[in-house]
Specification:
The complex is a heterodimer of chains A (356) and B (554).
Chain A (H helix, E strand, L loop, with lengths): L2 H10 L4 H15 L3 H14 L4 H13 L3 H14 L4 H13 L3 H11 L2 H10 L3 H14 L4 H25 L4 H13 L3 H14 L6 H11 L3 H14 L4 H13 L3 H14 L4 H13 L3 H14 L4 H16 L3 H14 L12
Chain B lengths: L6 H10 L17 E4 L26 E4 L8 E4 L25 E5 L5 E3 L14 E8 L8 E9 L1 E5 L5 E3 L1 H4 L4 E10 L8 E6 L30 E5 L5 E3 L1 H4 L8 E7 L8 E9 L2 E5 L5 E3 L1 H4 L10 E2 L3 E4 L8 E4 L8 E5 L5 E3 L6 H5 L4 E7 L8 E6 L6 H4 L10 E6 L2 E4 L10 E7 L8 E6 L5 E5 L5 E8 L11 E4 L2 E4 L14 E6 L3 E7 L5 E8 L2 E6 L5
Classes of the chains: A mainly alpha (356), B mainly beta (554).
Protein name (chain B): ASPIC/UnbV domain-containing protein
Organism (chain B): Silvibacterium bohemicum
Keywords (chain B): Signal
Chain lengths: 356, 554
């Protein structure tokens, strides 16, 4: 508890002197970290003066410091009966109730105290997910680097998402989206036949739904079934002709299948739709190099290196450029790029560990 | 039994109906390539004894060799067993190699195609206590005309000298090739062109049962190689007097540590000296350039054969060093784990290689598979070397961890069409835990056959159904070069092969060089012997087994 907060409140209270003496002793003991002594003194103060709200509030605060939340709740409730305007007591009672699992009861006290961080958690625990998300977002805006807040914000988002999907599944079990959702669940479990079945059903119900072919293609790509992946990505580009991601994925699949010219076309289109994407630039360089167009490969990889310096893609671009320069007989350039590649390799498997 | 239609059946059916084949059979509709047979007498079953300890050696054996140990003209089969592991292991480790169930086995092929187990009478029953078996190399190290066997182990390796009378003698200590640690693939080659075969031995890592680990958390899996320290490979120089010296350090081979599983030999820069490619697991690959002065320089990174096109390391297992695109230069193939592609490094001819897996079609064929033993051999005799790979994941519980992967797999047969590979029907319908693989013409019909080992199981013997393509099988008889001409570059009608028994994974193949020749009835044979002698034979009839004796003078 804040000493200043208590001093101000104390000045407003009317009390008999012995109670005040114990109260002061309790506050002093609390300051000195003598929490058991503080409890004894503050309890005596409340016994001697059952209307001394601050003594009740402070007693509850000391119990919270002792992490004895159940013991904290009665004196805090009594303090608020005596003085409903004690915001500090509202905050403490909200914390204590929340800690004890009484999230719903905690909410009005935390609202009163404007304790948004704890309020967000209470709303989450009470199952009021949209409200929790709004409050936590506000709290995060004030403390963007608080890992606790980030955790609860993420957890709330996830639960809210699940809740909405559950509702979708319950209300529209035969909808394309419900099947898409089930397909995604199977995909997470790496159950290719299960996911495939659900994706096919979704596509049967709604063949033009954006993203379905893309997700099915991604499933095939993860399963290394690149010919099937290509087919799905191509269908997605037909539905979403403005999707840079769909064209990127198509280009990636075509590259894996050794169809370099087609891969380049898809990747160029993706680059036009969304410029300066390092992934697209890397794959475009790779496709061009494998298609025998070293000029385009160099251009793409150099552009990538102008955007990124210390990433794995940048490292790969240095390696690719070294290969091109070596092939062209530009040994100094090849050595320079290889040196950049070596420098970027932090994993021992590449260099150090293999040296004697 | 395999119920698929065979090439031979198809041919017979067409003939009986008076049908003419519209094209060479090798180019016709896809029919299965092999017949899976269980030759009478071949009763081997590999013992690896998997334990809950997940000792890494459990999942790495065992090798196979195809050799004609008694020079009767028929290929015999030597199979490496591993041994029994306790749970957990305690010293002294014997692996129960005295138990006949855990012996390595030599099977002599009989005239009727059956096999007879001659292990005991050949003197090969004793694999050595403390040796958990891995692989085998074959070479006639003393040029006496009989192939010798070098067996690699976790423990100590063993060299069995072929006495020429159907028996072998363990000469390991006497000749000085008793490598310790954990050896995997090995191979004989002549690095200094002195006419005596030298020996290269790969070693996987610094590992022993007392320093084993279990990985994968609750999944309890074998650990990835990076969990254990790397180690050096070994090069033994044949002194020519029946003994070897360890020149690993002097030659530069031991100047770099790896996690090596495979080795293959070829002269990639055509300087007349055989170079070495070593496949490493979970790190960059090694290319040892032979400097011609008894030393080697590791140059894979500079040569473009160390990493993928993305600069990523490979889980290198087996390897092949042969020319896949008929441009006359040896290329490198490396088999790897899923979500990598089998790496194909194309020899660009200026001492450098380029990564060509995707161009060659391996992105589609291999990205979901795990490869071990492999070869580039012309199975359909169309003049292009096809790819065969023994496959299976390294983790026996991988399907529990990742439903998208499989532990047991069918072998891969990929037919080569002008340098591009397309899936073929091997005829193998069962999935196995493939490991070693050796290649040769078991029944001398001019069509290449395969023996694949299965971890903890029986080997697969795959007999090629044959077809209409012509062929030529060449045996080299070195005089100034080593007796079997290993290291020779042999060109036939525009195709090139490097004479070797090494490559694949922990296995050794038929020393004869097989060429599929399509419709050609005559062949031009050109041999560049390790001695430097260049020999040309014109107007050679196809469909024959040809022995070529090295000219005494160039």
């Amino acid at each position: 508890m804040s000493g200043a907060f208590l001093s101000v409140l104390l000045a407003l209270q009317t009390s008999v002197p012995p109670a005040l003496q114990h109260f002061h002793a309790g506050v002093e003991a609390e300051k000195n970290g003598q929490l058991d002594t503080a409890v004894v003194e503050l309890r005596k103060a409340t016994e001697l003066d059952s209307t001394l709200a601050v003594a009740f509030a402070d007693l509850g605060g000391v119990y919270i410091e002792k992490r004895d939340y159940s013991a904290a709740i009665p004196p805090l409730k009594r303090a608020l009966e005596l003085n409903p305007g004690l915001n500090g007591a509202h905050r403490l009672l909200g914390y204590a109730l929340l800690a004890q699992g009484y999230a719903t009861e905690a909410i009005p006290h935390l609202e009163q105290a404007h304790a948004e961080d704890a309020l967000g958690i209470a709303l989450l625990e009470a199952g009021k997910l949209p409200e929790a998300l709004a409050v936590l977002e506000k709290a995060l805006a004030q403390n963007p680097n608080d890992p606790e807040l980030l955790y609860y914000y993420g957890r709330t988002s996830g639960l809210l998402s699940k809740q909405i999907f559950d509702e979708l599944e319950a209300r529209f079990p035969d909808s394309a989206r419900a099947h898409q959702m089930m397909a995604q669940d199977y995909a997470v479990l790496r159950d290719v036949p299960g996911a495939e079945r659900e994706f096919f059903e979704a596509l049967r119900l709604s063949p033009q739904t954006a993203g379905l072919h893309l997700q099915l293609g991604e499933l095939y790509a993860r399963a290394q079934q690149w010919d099937k992946a290509e087919e799905q990505f191509r269908l997605e580009t037909g539905i979403q002709s403005g999707s840079a991601e769909a064209f990127y994925r198509l280009g990636e699949a075509l590259l894996q299948l050794g169809k370099f010219h087609e891969a380049r076309e898809a990747l160029v289109h993706s680059d036009q739709l969304r410029q300066d994407m390092p992934e697209t630039l890397y794959q475009l360089g790779k496709a061009a190099a494998m298609d025998g167009d070293d000029t385009t490969a160099q251009k793409s990889w150099k552009h990538l290196l102008s955007l990124e310096k210390d990433t794995s893609l940048a490292s790969q671009a240095h390696f690719g450029l070294a290969g091109i320069y070596r092939k062209q007989g530009k040994h100094a350039d090849a050595d320079r790029e290889m040196e950049e590649f070596r420098k970027s390799q932090s994993k021992p498997a590449h260099t150090d560990d293999s040296q004697k | 039994m395999n119920q698929r239609i065979t090439r031979r059946h198809f041919l017979e059916a067409c003939a009986s109906m008076g049908l003419a084949l519209p094209m060479p059979l090798s180019l016709a509709a896809p029919l299965s390539m092999f017949d899976v047979k269980h030759p009478r007498g071949l009763d081997f079953s590999h013992v690896n004894s998997p334990t809950p300890q997940k000792y890494l050696i459990e999942t790495m054996g065992g090798g196979v060799a195809l050799l004609d140990y008694n020079n009767d003209g028929l290929l015999d089969i030597f199979l490496v067993n591993s041994g029994r592991l306790a749970n957990p292991m305690h010293a002294p480790e014997t692996f129960d190699r005295q138990d006949p169930r855990n012996w390595n086995r030599l099977y002599r092929q009989n005239r009727d195609g059956s096999f007879t187990d001659v292990t005991k009478e050949a003197g090969l029953a004793n694999a050595g206590d403390g040796n958990y078996g891995m692989g085998v190399a074959v070479g006639d190290y003393d040029n006496d005309g009989f192939p010798d066997l070098y067996v690699t182990n976790y423990g100590k390796n063993t060299l069995y000298h072929n006495n020429g009378d159907g028996t072998f003698t363990d000469v390991t200590a006497k000749v000085g090739v008793e490598t310790g640690g954990w050896s995997c693939s090995a191979g004989f080659f002549d690095y200094d062109n002195d006419g005596h075969l030298d020996l290269f031995v790969t070693r996987y890592m610094q590992w022993d049962t007392q320093h084993s680990k279990i990985c994968g958390g609750e999944w309890q899996t074998y650990c990835p190689p990076a969990e254990f320290p790397a180690t050096t490979n070994i090069l033994y120089r044949n002194r020519g007097d029946g003994t070897f010296e360890d020149v690993s350090h002097r030659s530069g081979i031991a100047s770099i540590k790896g996690r090596s599983l495979g080795v293959a030999f070829a002269d990639y820069d055509d300087d007349g000296f055989t170079d070495i490619f070593v496949s490493n697991d979970g790190m960059r690959q090694f290319l040892f350039h032979n400097n011609g002065d008894g030393t080697f320089t590791e140059c894979a990174l500079e040569a473009g054969a160390a990493l993928t096109a993305d600069g990523k390391p490979l889980s290198g297992m087996g390897t092949v060093f042969q020319d896949y695109d008929n441009d006359g230069r040896p290329d490198i193939l490396v088999t790897v784990l899923p979500r990598e592609d089998y790496a194909l490094f194309h020899n660009d001819g200026n001492g450098s290689f380029s990564y060509r897996s995707l161009q060659a079609g391996l992105g589609l064929l291999s990205a979901a598979s795990s490869g071990w033993g492999a070869c580039l051999e012309d199975f359909d005799n169309d003049g292009w070397k096809d790819l065969f790979v023994a496959q299976s994941h390294v983790l026996d519980n991988v399907e529990q961890i990742d439903h998208m992967l499989h532990y047991k797999e069918q072998p891969l047969l990929a037919l080569n069409h002008n340098g591009h590979f397309e899936r073929g029907d091997s005829g193998v319908t069962a999935a196995i835990a493939g490991r070693g693989a050796a290649f040769g013409d078991l029944n001398n019909d001019g069509w290449m056959d395969v023996v694949v080992t299965s971890l903890g199981g029986e080997p697969l013997v795959l007999f090629n159904h044959g077809g209409s393509g012509n062929w030529l099988s060449i045996s080299l008889r070195g005089t100034r070069s080593n007796r079997d001409g290993l290291g020779a570059r042999v060109q036939v009608n525009g195709q090139t092969r490097y004479a070797t028994t090494a490559g694949s994974y922990i296995s050794a193949s038929d020393k004869r060089l097989h060429f599929g020749l399509g419709t050609a009835e005559m062949a031009k044979v050109e041999i560049h012997w390790p001695s430097g002698i260049h020999q040309i034979l014109e107007g050679v009839k196809t469909n024959q087994f040809l022995e070529v004796r090295e000219l005494e003078k160039s």
